[in-house]
Structure formats: structure tokens, C-alpha cells
Amino acid sequence: MAHKYVYLFSEGNGSMRELLGGKGANLAEMTSLGMPVPQGFTITTEACTSYYQTGKNISKEIEEQIFEYLKKLEQLTGKKFGDPKNPLLCSVRSGARASMPGMMDTVLNLGLNDEVVEGLAKLTNNRRFAFDAYRRFIQMFSDVVMGIPKTYFDDVLDSIKESNSIEFDHQLTIENLEEAVVKFKGVYKREIGEDFPTDSHKQLLSAVKAVFSSWENPRAIYYRRMNDIPSSWGTAVTVQSMVFGNMGDDCGTGVAFTRNPSTGEKKLYGEFLMNAQGEDVVAGIRTPQTIDQLAKVMPDAYNKILDIAETLEKHNQDMQDLEFTIEKGKLYMLQTRNGKRTAQAAIKIAVDLVEQGLCTIEEALLKVDPSQLDSLLHPQFEPNALANAKPVAKGLPASPGAAYGRVYFNAEDATEAATKRNEPVILVRIETSPEDIEGMAISRGILTARGGMTSHAAVVARGMGRCCVSGCNTLIVDNNNKVAYFGDVKVMEGDYISIDGSTGRIYAQQLPTIDATLSGDFAKFMLWADQVRSLKVRTNADTAKDARQARLFGAEGIGLCRTEHMFFAKDRILQMRKMILAKSTAERIAALEKILPMQQNDFEELYREMAGLPVNIRFLDPPLHEFLPHDDDETSITAYEMGISFTELKNAVKRLQETNPMLGHRGCRLAVSYPEIARMQTRAVMQAAINVKREGIDVEPEIMIPLVCDAAELNFVKGVVDETAQKVFEEQGMTLTYKVGAMIEIPRAALMTDEISKYAEFFSFGTNDLTQTTYGLSRDDASQILDDYFKNRIFEYDPTTKLDQTGVGKLIRMASKWAKETRPDIKLGVCGEHGGDPVSIQFFQSAGLDYVSCSPYRVPVARLAAAQAKIKLDK
Q1: Is 831 a catalytic residue?
Q2: Which of 456, 565, 625, 834 is catalytic?
């Protein structure tokens, strides 16, 4: 028996999304519910897969099935395809299993030619309608199927309208439309070199091929990458008998939502146009009427839409997005799908659906995209101002939120402007480094010319809750003259710009922002998530402010405190530099003793904020040269402050620089070479913990050793930690429980966890560096390389932002399994940026990890993603 590639709407149902796509499955479901759906058939996603496997060809078997089902459609409708006496016209639309609105292509009015259009005109007694449909079809077919820019046809139509003093399309006369058809066919012949096709069956096959091909168009590929949709899914194609909203004043077309997609209010929301086809509503050529006005224009159709909307929402247990057409007063439903909505609306709808008894808590939790929560936690641009603004450039949306401010090009100038003149600041850099930390902290937003979604700027900005746009390739920064260029647009120091970290867009003007607001529904919804999830959610926090914010967002401890960030403040960097440049151990210890009380105070603040929750403190990680001055001006100032010559300091900086610092003298290697650093940090951790414990606050410190690759290496550093801790306990006359563990961030460590776990009480997977070292790919330069990999279909997504489950994920699974075999009670967590990525969190749940840790503003996202992961795993 031949494989079935085509299904009538009456043969499918709503559970067949993988095969029929979302559109085909929903049309089949509406048909089974007895709704007024124009009949048709769906060509499956398997046919799309076959199309690509055979070099973009439709096989003979699939072609035969398409025409077999076309005959069945002719029988259902009583019309004949390509017959001028009683023509069947069709729409050909895409329909992937995940909704991808506007990303793929559609052809309407298919089946028209010079003979059929005359027959349609006689049959309907409406010549204007027939030629309006024909000119639309020629333009759409030429654009979608043949790749002729639609602007060529727009220019022709505009010329006809201008010469006849016509403003709107619906004012075109029969003669105008006949002229348009002739000229449109002329454009086709000029561009393609042959006449417009008249064989309706060839038109259909060409349109099906075009829809299959649109699965790989640039906007569809980009949308899939942004929404984690695999390319292997393919798209289905629905072929549906046409109904016409442009036959006269008793016809129309529109879109409706069963609830307001912006607010979530339970009220029909949408708009329609009389005497129009579907694309007119979204094209903006005419201003549509609001859906409630349909009650006055066509009350019977409006009441039927109300009934159908109620039925479909109850049936699908979610807010629906409906498309409809009214032909000669009769209502037809063209589509239903779960409607796209704002985060605010998504929360309200989910809570309302539970309270109205339409779905369970678990089902409601699955209706909200965790990534949407970002927009509830950060400022956004005022909508009206944004609508009238034109971006000058676009980079990567590295950290969400919106901000305006005056441009400054270095951390010092930014800090002075913000602290002394109280100016709103946007820090603009070629790329940021740890030395920029103070300038980043006081800025409202950060913009960089280089770097990816996990660059230093992106990671730090997300941790601080600052909006950030990174990797803006068109941005040229001239630090010497303090000016930036976005193409022809010049921005001087002190000029206003606005950046949107949620979209990556940059505006050369001041756009007002509105603060985020959290409703009572949000708290209720997040409580449901917490009741369901099993994966704990911690935060990456280096300051008391970050820790406090994370606790407000529901963090259950600190999963990563990067101690190096504490050393870049102006009152500490000098002592740090003295420690690095010390010529003897005694000098180094003397410098460390001055740093100790500062570090201890930082830890005390973190312990107080966490109030008994675990605090994971990573010992010093970056190579030492990062703390030293990088330019001659700063070197001169530092040399003067340290009482040494410029040349001596310059030589020291040069001596400490490494060819590949990421794989150089950093992490635990520093503690092996300079155990006095680990002793100072251990003393700061323990003395702070004892001080806070004496205040009556429980403390649960965890010391994490970075860049471990061998069990003996960890055992050596752990020995330093334990010895120092015991000395502190003896001096203070008090003991406390603490844990020592390792950060797993290089492949050898992942392969040696059975040995390393003999000395480690926990592992935290540093997926940022584990991804870099596994791929041999720098996250700061990844965007420049990966564009070519996306273009050539080597990678589908950026592994530095979404965990590579097959490669890096395999290391994590193996490492976890081996660690538990050696130490069954070992705690396993993640502290890389992937800890806040919903898709990655689903993997971490399945891999058996105990917690994820992410930046404070990603904590609610991770809480919801963890709940969804548990629900899906249980299913």
C-alpha cells in the first residue's frame, strides 16, 4: 500500500500536528466540530521532508496523490479546477507544527487564467470582483513562486491609481483592473522571459513547491533559530477552496482573538474589512474596523463568530486567534490557532483559564513562554514613541529591557556623568572588559560593537539587570575622538541614544520608557510553578544588591559568586595590583591582608541577604594580567600610585601576558602557584560566615574551585582550604559546616568526575567555558563565525546561548552519572548562562541535576521553565 502523503480535512484531527502542521490539524479539528470551514486537503510534513531529500522535487507518488485529492475536493465542492464554466479556485498556505506567523508563503486565488477569469465574471455577474482576484493572483504567484519583487507590481498599480486620481484599491474600476492584469502579465514576461502560466494544475504544483521552499527562506530560518524550532520538522501545505470577501458589500474578511492579546481581557478583540481579501487587513492599505462594529454591519455573522469563538476556546482550552471570511453574507472560518499574546496577557489568561475551570494548573503553566517573562521585569519603551521611531542600527538582543541615555565611551567618563552630574548614561564600547564593571553598573544600558550573546558585556549586563545590545557590526567606535558612527549617523559624546535589549534595535534619539509592573496574577502564577517544579533555582550574584534582587525574584541561594568582580572597584584595584606584582611571598601576603577585610565584608553582605540559603563562592578565576592597566595613561597613573617606574610596570604587564589566557595561568592554577591567595579567600569566607552566624543567621558556604582538570589538583587546593578553615575555627572558637566542590568547565574534568568526586562535595557545570572548550570556539567571536555556519546549514543555533545537548550535553550526562557512582549524595548544578535558558533547563531536569543558577533577572524565567520541564518529564 502506498504511503499516505495527503489528507482531506475530514480525515484528520487536532492531534495530528506533527503530520498535518498546526494549520492543517486545526482545520481538520474545526471540520470535525461541524464548523463552516471551506473544504480542502493537507499535504503532510513528510512530503516536505521528501521534497528536500529528492533535491527539491515533488515525487511522482506525491504528485499523483495531490491530483487524486484535488478530484475529491472537486466532488465535495461541486466545482472543477481550471473549468471556466464552474471554476474551483484554491488558496495554498504553509502550516508548520509550531505557529510561525508571516514567516512562510501563501498564494490565493490559484486556478485563474484568462479563460477562467471570464467564466468567474459571468458566474458571479461581477466582473470587477473577478479581475480584482486575478490581478492579486498574478502578483502573489509572481512574488511567492517566481521570486519577482512585489514592488514591481505595486509600482504599476500606483501608476494606474495616480493617472486616474484614485487613492484606494477598492476604488479601482473594472477598466483599471483589466489594465492592471495586462500590465502585471507584462512584468512577468519581462522578468521571467515567458508568458504567465495558464495551466491550473502546473500553477498548483509550482505553488506547493514554493511553500515547501519557503521553509528555508531567511526569515523562516531566523524565526526557527530564535524560537528553537528544528529544521527537520518541515512544513505542511494546506490547499483550500477559496471563499471571497471581495465580491461586494455583503462580503468581508477579518481576524479575531477570543481575548485581548495585549491585556488578556475576556472580550472578543479584532478587526475586519468589508469587500476585501485577507491580506488587505494586515497590509494597512485601508483602515480596518474594530470587530464590535461588525455587530452593526452584519449582526448574524457577528453572533456566529461569538458562538464559534466561545466553542473553540473551550475546546482548545486556550485563547484563540481566528481568521474568517464572509461571502455573500455567509460566514466561513479559515483558521484557528492558539493566539500570540504579550507576557502580561499570557499570565492573566493562564490564571483566568484555571479559575474558570477551563484547564488545570499544569496545563496553564505550559501556556506561557518562560522567555516572555523578561518583558515583565524590565522597563520598555513607551509604545507610541516607539511606533514613530526609526532605528539607525541593529545588534544582538543581549540583555532585555529598554533605556535611553547620553553616550559615553569609557567607564570613567560614564561614572563621572552619572554620579556627579546625575545624567542618564549609555556606555558605548568596542567591547567591554572586567575593568568596565563600575561604568556598567551606573549605566542604564550597554552597547558594544563586538561580542555575542554570551560575551562579557552580555553576561554582566544580564546579571545587573541592565539592558544590553552587543555585536552591532555596523557600529564604528572612535575612542580617541569620542565619537561613534552608525553608517552615516554620527553620535558624539553626550548625545542621546536609546537601545532596546529585547530586540537589538538602536535609536539615535531619546525615547521615553515605562517601568515594568507585576500584577497579583504574576505572584499567583509563579507560586503554582514553585509547587510543581523539583529543580532548585539559584542566582549568579556578586553584590548584595544583586542578591537582594534575586531573592525578590524567588532565588533559592547563590549558585555563583565571582569573587574577581569584587576586586575591580577603585578602592581595591591598587591593592590587587600590588599583590600581583609582589616580588616575594611576604609582599604578596602583605597586600592580601589589606584585601582580606574588603572581601570578608562582601561575603558577610551576601550571607545576610541569603539568610540561611546556600552561598557558592568561586575562588579567583581570571588570569592576573586582566587586573593590570592596559594603556600607557593608566600605566603611568598606576606606576605613580605604586611608587615604581613606568618601565618596570610596563615590563611586568608584558611578562604576565599570555598567548592564550583562557587556557593559561588562571583558576585553580593560581591557587597551586600562589596558595596564599586561596588562604586569604578561605579566611574571608569563614570569618564572614562566623560573624554572620553570631548574628543569629544561618550560613551555608560553598567554596568552588574553578578550572579543575584533575583529582590531585583539587585535592591540593582543598587541602589549603581545609587547613585554613580549621585555623579560623580555632581562632574564633566556633565551627560551621561548609562544602568544597569543583567547577566542571573543561572536557577532561567532565571525563574524570569519578575520580574528582572523591574530593568534591558538589559539582557546578560552568557551561559557558565547557561549551567554549568543547567546541574550541570563543563566545566573544562566535557571532562572526556562526553566521556562515547558519547560512551553510552546519549549525541551526548558537551553542553559546542554547546548550548543545548532543555534545556538551553528553559530557554533562556522563559526568553526572560517574560522579554519583563515586559519591551518591553529590550535589550537581549549573552556573553558566544556559542556567537561565528554558530549552537548556529542560535538558538539565532530564539529566538529573539538582539546581540551575542564572542572573537575577532570569530567576523567574528559570522557575517557570523548571516547572514546565518537570511537567513534560512526568508526561
Answers
A1: yes
A2: 456
Q: Which residue in the list 467, 472, 831, 854 is annotated as catalytic? A: 831
Burial of residue 814, with CB atoms counted within 10 A of its CB: 0-12 exposed, 13-18 middle, 19 or more buried: middle
CA distances (Å), 825 to each of 286, 700, 745, 762, 767, in order? 66, 17, 21, 9, 22
Q: d(Cα 688, Cα 815) in Å, to the nearest integer?
A: 33
Q: Is 625 a catalytic residue?
A: no
CA separation, residue 441 to residues 295, 313, 550, 568 (Å):
54, 46, 16, 12
pLDDT of 434: 67
Q: Rounded CA gap, 371 and 106, in Å?
A: 29
What is the model's pLDDT at position 737?
96
Q: Please count the helices (runs of H) and the strands (runs of E) in the chain.
A: 35, 33
| Confidence at 564, pLDDT banded by 50, 70, 90 | confident
Residue pLDDT, tens place only, 488-501: 999 999 999 999 99
Q: Kindly list the distances between the CA atom of residue 235 and the CA atoms of 9, 210, 789, in Å, as whole numbers in the listed order.
A: 16, 11, 22
Between CA 437 and CA 423 the distance in angstroms is 18
Residues 6+ apart with CB under 8 A from 591: 575, 576, 578, 579, 582
3-state secondary structure of 90: strand
CA 468/CA 459 separation, integer angstroms: 9
**Any idea which of 519-523, 604-608, 677-681, 854-858 has the lowest mean pLDDT?**
519-523
C-alpha to C-alpha distances, 39 to 11, 36, 79, 203, 209, nearest whole angstrom: 11, 9, 12, 19, 21
Note the pLDDT tens digit of each residue in 401-434: 899 999 999 999 999 999 899 999 999 999 887 6
Distance of alpha carbon 30 from alpha carbon 324, whole angstroms: 13
Cell 595613561 locates to 633
Give the three cell numbers for residue 875: 508526561
